[in-house]
Amino acid sequence: MPRFYFHIYNGFGRAPDDEGRECDDTEEARAIAVEGVRSLLSAEVLEGRLDLRGRIEVTGDDSRVVIVVPFKDALTVLSGPLPETSPREGSQ
Amino acid sequence: MKTVGDTLAFHLSLIGELSDADCTILSDAPATVRTVRRGTDVLSEGEIPHDAVIVLSGLLQRYTARKDGTRQVHSFYVPTDAPSLETLYMDYMDNSLCAAVDSTVGLIPHAHLYELIDKRPGIRKLLWRQTLVQAAVFREWLMRNSRLPAHACVAHLFCEIFVRSQAARLTTDHTFPFPITQEQLSEAVGLSPVHTNRTIMLLRDANAIEWQGGRVSVKDWDKLSAIAEFDAYYLHLRSLPAHAVARGRGRHPEDERGDMRPPARVWHRATFCGAIEQVFVCHLRSQVSSFTRTEPRHGGQASLKVG
After folding, report:
1. What's the mean pLDDT in B54-69?
2. Which of the residues A87, B14, B57, B307 has the least number of beta carbons within 10 Å of its own beta carbon?
3. pLDDT value at residue B134
């Protein structure tokens, strides 16, 4: 199985991954990167801030970047006013 | 040569008084030794154990798996630990015990331990106590994983394994063996592997720890334990190193043995110096430790940015 390395670039600098992780393919590597971004951001949200400017770069054994996951692509962000909704059935 | 029973006697003596006669009787306990490859279960969920497991080398872990195959690791066991004594009185394993790395375990038949429990009140008391201490450790793991932010959570785990390794005499120069991968660690702290990697990087950058070649070095105990809000009280070790108790309660009356305190950064660097400097370092060290002892433990001096 190929080994992939997940390097984080965010507001606090760069966190290189020197251990890596074996994955079936780049799809699994992408899923791991997305899960990682969500996990990192969730901790940040608990502290009351959210910085979506970072990214995870996934490299292979030859150090070539194979996938880039920008933080903002790892989740759906909705903001602005809620759409008008009709009252739920059964509510008063 | 040390027997498996000797190892169990040593383990029990860390949490209570064991008479010489009880030590001798344990020493003669029948046992077999088994090697276990990394990732292999020693005891699997649903299994009915017939032997008590004693870790002789390597590292064991217990885990519960979800349907999707992801796992929560809820304990690590270093050499000399006895991970499954509660199975003496449980009918089956409700979780799995596996080798986190290639390991060696000793197995003492339950039948033999039942005999000792009947005949030796000292051994009975400590076997009972050991399983209660395990419960205390699980409570702390619950607190750690549900209440502490990522960096404190990982720091807390390092603190625990360090203090337990120190008690088991596995440390050298404030370094303990921790031969697992960051991915395995992530299963214990409930973070994604990527997040775990980032968190370890933060602790490294803070110069609190170094983790290399399967060994973790505590670079600055005061900082690491402050980040973790760590207090080794819950481990119920008979002679807890003075540095490990933050709240000062629960100190065993006999616990005024030598200073096992890991380095504050100020004199850690100096320990690499030559002989003349050593004399100065000792002087400095006594000053540092007498100073830090009078300081409140939770000085709040260690803070870390999360990112």
Report:
1. 95
2. A87
3. 96
Instruction: Kindly report the number of other CB atoms within 10 A of residue B132's CB atom.
Output: 12
Q: Which helix (H) or strand (E) holds A21?
A: strand A21-22
The position carrying tokens 């009880």 is B22
pTM: 0.81
Q: What sign does the CA torsion over B185, B219, B145, B58 have?
A: positive
ipTM: 0.83
| Whether the predicted pLDDT of B15 surpasses 80 | yes
* Minimum distance, in Å, between the CA of residue A89 and any CA atom of chain B: 36
Query: When comparing pLDDT for A92 and B147, which is higher?
Result: B147
Q: Given an 8 Å threshold on Cβ–Cβ distance, is B193 in contact with A8?
A: no
Handedness of CA B4, B6, B9, B10 (dihedral sign): negative
**pLDDT at site B111:** 97
All residues of chain A having their beta carbon less than 8 Å from the beta carbon of residue B305 are 12
Residue B122 has, within 13 A of its CA and on its CB side, a CA count of 14
Cβ neighbours of B253 (radius 10 Å): 5
In the predicted model, is pLDDT for residue B247 greater than 70?
A: no
Q: What are phi and psi of B205, to 5 degrees?
A: -60, -35
CA distance linking residue A86 with residue B23, whole number of Å = 76
Q: What is the pLDDT of residue B244?
A: 66
A4 three-state secondary structure: strand
Q: pLDDT value at position B69?
A: 86
Residues of B in contact with A39 (CB under 8 A): 191-192, 194-195
A7-57 residue pLDDT tens: 999 887 888 998 899 999 999 999 999 999 999 999 999 889 999 999 999
Q: Is the CA virtual torsion B155, B78, A1, B40 positive or negative?
A: negative
Contact A40 B193 (CB under 8 A): no
